[in-house]
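Colleagues,

For the teaching module next term, I've prepared a clean inverse folding example: a structure given as C-alpha coordinates, and then the sequence designed for it. I'd like students to try predicting residues themselves before seeing the answer, so please don't circulate the second half yet.
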Protein backbone atom coordinates (compact mmCIF):
# COMPACT_ATOMS: atom_id res chain seq x y z
CA UNK A 1 0.00 0.00 0.00
CA UNK A 2 1.31 3.45 -0.86
CA UNK A 3 2.11 5.76 2.04
CA UNK A 4 -0.39 8.42 1.02
CA UNK A 5 -3.13 5.84 0.86
CA UNK A 6 -2.15 4.52 4.27
CA UNK A 7 -2.30 8.08 5.60
CA UNK A 8 -5.70 8.46 4.09
CA UNK A 9 -6.91 5.28 5.78
CA UNK A 10 -5.40 6.42 9.07
CA UNK A 11 -7.22 9.72 8.87
CA UNK A 12 -10.33 7.77 8.02
CA UNK A 13 -9.79 5.71 11.13
CA UNK A 14 -9.50 8.86 13.25
CA UNK A 15 -12.86 9.87 11.91
CA UNK A 16 -14.15 6.42 12.71
CA UNK A 17 -16.89 7.46 15.06
CA UNK A 18 -18.50 9.61 12.41
CA UNK A 19 -17.82 7.27 9.52
CA UNK A 20 -21.20 5.59 9.82
CA UNK A 21 -22.79 8.88 8.93
CA UNK A 22 -20.63 9.40 5.86
CA UNK A 23 -21.95 8.46 2.51
CA UNK A 24 -20.29 5.49 0.88
CA UNK A 25 -20.79 6.84 -2.62
CA UNK A 26 -17.55 7.34 -4.50
CA UNK A 27 -15.61 4.88 -2.40
CA UNK A 28 -14.48 1.57 -3.66
CA UNK A 29 -15.60 -1.60 -2.00
CA UNK A 30 -12.44 -2.31 -0.08
CA UNK A 31 -12.28 1.16 1.43
CA UNK A 32 -15.90 0.77 2.41
CA UNK A 33 -15.17 -2.52 4.13
CA UNK A 34 -12.59 -0.87 6.32
CA UNK A 35 -14.81 2.14 6.98
CA UNK A 36 -17.54 -0.04 8.38
CA UNK A 37 -15.71 -0.68 11.60
CA UNK A 38 -13.86 1.99 13.53
CA UNK A 39 -10.24 1.53 14.43
CA UNK A 40 -8.83 3.44 17.35
CA UNK A 41 -5.93 5.72 16.48
CA UNK A 42 -3.65 4.40 19.21
CA UNK A 43 -2.58 0.82 18.73
CA UNK A 44 -4.97 0.19 15.88
CA UNK A 45 -7.47 -1.76 17.96
CA UNK A 46 -10.81 -2.35 16.35
CA UNK A 47 -13.69 -0.65 18.15
CA UNK A 48 -17.45 -0.99 18.17
CA UNK A 49 -19.10 1.56 15.87
CA UNK A 50 -22.15 3.34 17.29
CA UNK A 51 -25.51 2.42 15.83
CA UNK A 52 -26.56 4.92 13.14
CA UNK A 53 -30.00 5.26 14.87
CA UNK A 54 -31.51 4.83 18.34
CA UNK A 55 -31.99 1.33 19.77
CA UNK A 56 -35.77 1.68 19.74
CA UNK A 57 -36.07 3.24 16.33
CA UNK A 58 -36.51 -0.02 14.40
CA UNK A 59 -39.67 -0.76 16.36
CA UNK A 60 -42.23 -2.18 15.96
CA UNK A 61 -40.31 -4.59 13.69
CA UNK A 62 -37.16 -5.10 15.74
CA UNK A 63 -37.42 -4.35 19.44
CA UNK A 64 -35.24 -2.11 21.56
CA UNK A 65 -34.01 -4.82 23.92
CA UNK A 66 -32.89 -7.05 21.07
CA UNK A 67 -30.98 -4.15 19.54
CA UNK A 68 -29.32 -3.29 22.87
CA UNK A 69 -28.18 -6.84 23.49
CA UNK A 70 -27.27 -7.51 19.88
CA UNK A 71 -25.17 -4.36 19.48
CA UNK A 72 -23.78 -3.73 22.97
CA UNK A 73 -23.15 -7.34 24.01
CA UNK A 74 -22.92 -9.63 21.00
CA UNK A 75 -21.20 -7.24 18.60
CA UNK A 76 -18.91 -5.88 21.34
CA UNK A 77 -17.83 -9.44 22.13
CA UNK A 78 -16.85 -10.05 18.50
CA UNK A 79 -14.76 -6.86 18.53
CA UNK A 80 -13.01 -7.74 21.80
CA UNK A 81 -12.26 -11.30 20.75
CA UNK A 82 -11.05 -10.17 17.33
CA UNK A 83 -8.59 -7.78 19.00
CA UNK A 84 -7.40 -10.57 21.31
CA UNK A 85 -6.85 -12.88 18.33
CA UNK A 86 -4.80 -10.18 16.61
CA UNK A 87 -2.30 -10.40 19.49
CA UNK A 88 -1.52 -14.04 18.73
CA UNK A 89 1.57 -14.89 16.64
CA UNK A 90 -0.19 -17.82 14.99
CA UNK A 91 -2.52 -15.26 13.43
CA UNK A 92 -0.23 -12.28 12.97
CA UNK A 93 2.39 -14.32 11.10
CA UNK A 94 -0.19 -14.73 8.33
CA UNK A 95 -1.11 -11.03 8.14
CA UNK A 96 0.52 -7.81 7.12
CA UNK A 97 0.21 -4.75 9.30
CA UNK A 98 -1.93 -2.65 9.42
CA UNK A 99 -4.52 -5.37 9.85
CA UNK A 100 -7.61 -4.93 7.75
CA UNK A 101 -10.72 -6.98 7.13
CA UNK A 102 -9.51 -7.45 3.59
CA UNK A 103 -6.20 -8.93 4.72
CA UNK A 104 -7.88 -11.21 7.27
CA UNK A 105 -10.65 -12.46 4.98
CA UNK A 106 -8.11 -13.30 2.27
CA UNK A 107 -6.57 -15.87 4.63
CA UNK A 108 -9.72 -16.81 6.57
CA UNK A 109 -9.06 -20.48 5.82
CA UNK A 110 -5.60 -20.30 7.37
CA UNK A 111 -5.98 -18.16 10.50
CA UNK A 112 -7.27 -19.55 13.79
CA UNK A 113 -11.03 -20.23 13.66
CA UNK A 114 -11.54 -17.72 16.49
CA UNK A 115 -10.11 -14.91 14.34
CA UNK A 116 -12.16 -15.95 11.34
CA UNK A 117 -15.34 -16.09 13.46
CA UNK A 118 -14.83 -12.84 15.34
CA UNK A 119 -13.51 -10.74 12.46
CA UNK A 120 -16.45 -12.04 10.45
CA UNK A 121 -18.77 -11.18 13.32
CA UNK A 122 -17.41 -7.64 13.54
CA UNK A 123 -17.64 -7.00 9.81
CA UNK A 124 -21.03 -8.65 9.29
CA UNK A 125 -22.70 -6.76 12.14
CA UNK A 126 -21.15 -3.42 11.16
CA UNK A 127 -22.67 -3.92 7.73
CA UNK A 128 -26.00 -5.18 9.08
CA UNK A 129 -26.61 -2.06 11.23
CA UNK A 130 -26.08 0.18 8.24
CA UNK A 131 -28.41 -1.87 6.09
CA UNK A 132 -31.38 -1.07 8.33
CA UNK A 133 -33.24 2.19 8.93
CA UNK A 134 -36.28 3.30 10.92
CA UNK A 135 -39.66 2.89 9.23
CA UNK A 136 -42.12 3.00 12.15
CA UNK A 137 -45.22 3.29 9.98
CA UNK A 138 -44.15 0.39 7.78
CA UNK A 139 -44.27 2.54 4.68
CA UNK A 140 -43.76 0.78 1.36
CA UNK A 141 -40.06 -0.07 1.22
CA UNK A 142 -38.29 -1.16 -1.94
CA UNK A 143 -35.09 -0.51 -3.90
CA UNK A 144 -34.86 2.12 -6.62
CA UNK A 145 -32.51 3.08 -9.43
CA UNK A 146 -29.84 0.74 -10.73
CA UNK A 147 -30.24 -1.79 -7.93
CA UNK A 148 -33.97 -2.09 -8.62
CA UNK A 149 -33.22 -2.59 -12.33
CA UNK A 150 -30.67 -5.30 -11.56
CA UNK A 151 -33.06 -7.08 -9.20
CA UNK A 152 -35.74 -7.08 -11.91
CA UNK A 153 -33.23 -8.38 -14.44
CA UNK A 154 -31.85 -11.20 -12.28
CA UNK A 155 -34.96 -12.21 -10.27
CA UNK A 156 -37.81 -11.20 -12.60
CA UNK A 157 -39.49 -8.99 -9.99
CA UNK A 158 -38.91 -7.52 -6.54
CA UNK A 159 -41.53 -9.89 -5.12
CA UNK A 160 -39.78 -12.90 -6.64
CA UNK A 161 -36.50 -11.68 -5.19
CA UNK A 162 -38.02 -11.22 -1.73
CA UNK A 163 -39.58 -14.66 -1.86
CA UNK A 164 -36.33 -16.39 -2.77
CA UNK A 165 -34.30 -14.42 -0.21
CA UNK A 166 -36.84 -15.13 2.55
CA UNK A 167 -36.97 -18.84 1.73
CA UNK A 168 -33.20 -19.20 1.78
CA UNK A 169 -32.97 -17.28 5.06
CA UNK A 170 -35.71 -19.35 6.69
CA UNK A 171 -34.20 -22.64 5.53
CA UNK A 172 -30.62 -21.88 6.57
CA UNK A 173 -29.87 -24.55 9.17
CA UNK A 174 -28.52 -23.32 12.47
CA UNK A 175 -26.83 -19.92 12.76
CA UNK A 176 -25.67 -17.83 9.85
CA UNK A 177 -26.37 -15.07 7.38
CA UNK A 178 -28.32 -14.60 4.18
CA UNK A 179 -26.76 -12.31 1.57
CA UNK A 180 -27.53 -10.59 -1.68
CA UNK A 181 -24.21 -10.45 -3.49
CA UNK A 182 -22.97 -9.31 -6.85
CA UNK A 183 -20.98 -12.09 -8.49
CA UNK A 184 -19.51 -11.56 -11.96
CA UNK A 185 -22.04 -8.85 -12.76
CA UNK A 186 -25.02 -10.91 -11.58
CA UNK A 187 -27.00 -10.62 -8.38
CA UNK A 188 -27.22 -13.81 -6.38
CA UNK A 189 -28.70 -14.89 -3.03
CA UNK A 190 -26.37 -17.00 -0.90
CA UNK A 191 -26.09 -18.08 2.71
CA UNK A 192 -23.06 -18.53 4.96
CA UNK A 193 -22.80 -20.50 8.21
CA UNK A 194 -21.80 -18.95 11.54
CA UNK A 195 -20.01 -15.61 10.95
CA UNK A 196 -18.55 -16.48 7.55
CA UNK A 197 -19.20 -14.08 4.67
CA UNK A 198 -18.84 -14.00 0.88
CA UNK A 199 -15.59 -12.02 1.09
CA UNK A 200 -13.72 -14.89 2.76
CA UNK A 201 -11.36 -17.07 0.74
CA UNK A 202 -13.18 -20.18 1.93
CA UNK A 203 -16.67 -19.05 0.89
CA UNK A 204 -18.07 -21.40 -1.77
CA UNK A 205 -19.96 -18.42 -3.24
CA UNK A 206 -17.83 -15.30 -3.28
CA UNK A 207 -19.06 -11.84 -4.19
CA UNK A 208 -19.65 -8.25 -3.21
CA UNK A 209 -22.19 -7.89 -0.38
CA UNK A 210 -25.20 -5.74 -1.24
CA UNK A 211 -27.61 -6.85 1.48
CA UNK A 212 -27.09 -8.89 4.66
CA UNK A 213 -29.50 -10.53 7.08
CA UNK A 214 -28.48 -12.00 10.43
CA UNK A 215 -30.54 -15.13 11.14
CA UNK A 216 -28.83 -16.14 14.38
CA UNK A 217 -31.44 -16.70 17.07
CA UNK A 218 -29.96 -13.81 19.08
CA UNK A 219 -31.18 -11.49 16.30
CA UNK A 220 -34.85 -12.30 16.88
CA UNK A 221 -35.58 -14.70 19.72
CA UNK A 222 -36.80 -12.19 22.35
CA UNK A 223 -39.56 -10.87 20.11
CA UNK A 224 -40.22 -13.70 17.68
CA UNK A 225 -39.09 -16.78 19.66
CA UNK A 226 -38.77 -19.68 17.22
CA UNK A 227 -40.64 -17.91 14.42
CA UNK A 228 -37.75 -16.96 12.17
CA UNK A 229 -40.07 -16.48 9.20
CA UNK A 230 -41.99 -13.75 11.09
CA UNK A 231 -38.74 -11.96 11.94
CA UNK A 232 -37.76 -12.00 8.28
CA UNK A 233 -41.11 -10.79 6.96
CA UNK A 234 -40.98 -7.89 9.43
CA UNK A 235 -37.32 -7.14 8.68
CA UNK A 236 -38.18 -6.17 5.09
CA UNK A 237 -39.83 -3.04 6.52
CA UNK A 238 -36.55 -1.74 7.90
CA UNK A 239 -34.17 -2.61 5.07
CA UNK A 240 -32.14 0.44 4.11
CA UNK A 241 -32.37 0.19 0.34
CA UNK A 242 -30.51 3.47 -0.14
CA UNK A 243 -27.48 1.99 1.59
CA UNK A 244 -27.82 -1.28 -0.36
CA UNK A 245 -27.89 0.80 -3.55
CA UNK A 246 -24.68 2.55 -2.50
CA UNK A 247 -22.96 -0.78 -1.87
CA UNK A 248 -24.18 -2.04 -5.25
CA UNK A 249 -22.80 1.06 -6.99
CA UNK A 250 -19.27 0.55 -5.62
CA UNK A 251 -16.58 -1.11 -7.66
MN1 LIG B 1 -25.86 -11.21 15.31
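(Answer key — instructors only)
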Amino acid sequence: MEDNRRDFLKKGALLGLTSLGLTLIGKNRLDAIEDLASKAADGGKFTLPALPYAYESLEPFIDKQTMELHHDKHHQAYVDKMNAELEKPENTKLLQSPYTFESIFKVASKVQPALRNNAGGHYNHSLFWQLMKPNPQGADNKPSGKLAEAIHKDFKSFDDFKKEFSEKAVKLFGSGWCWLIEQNGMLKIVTTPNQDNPLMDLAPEKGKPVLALDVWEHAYYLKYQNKRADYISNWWNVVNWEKAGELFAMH
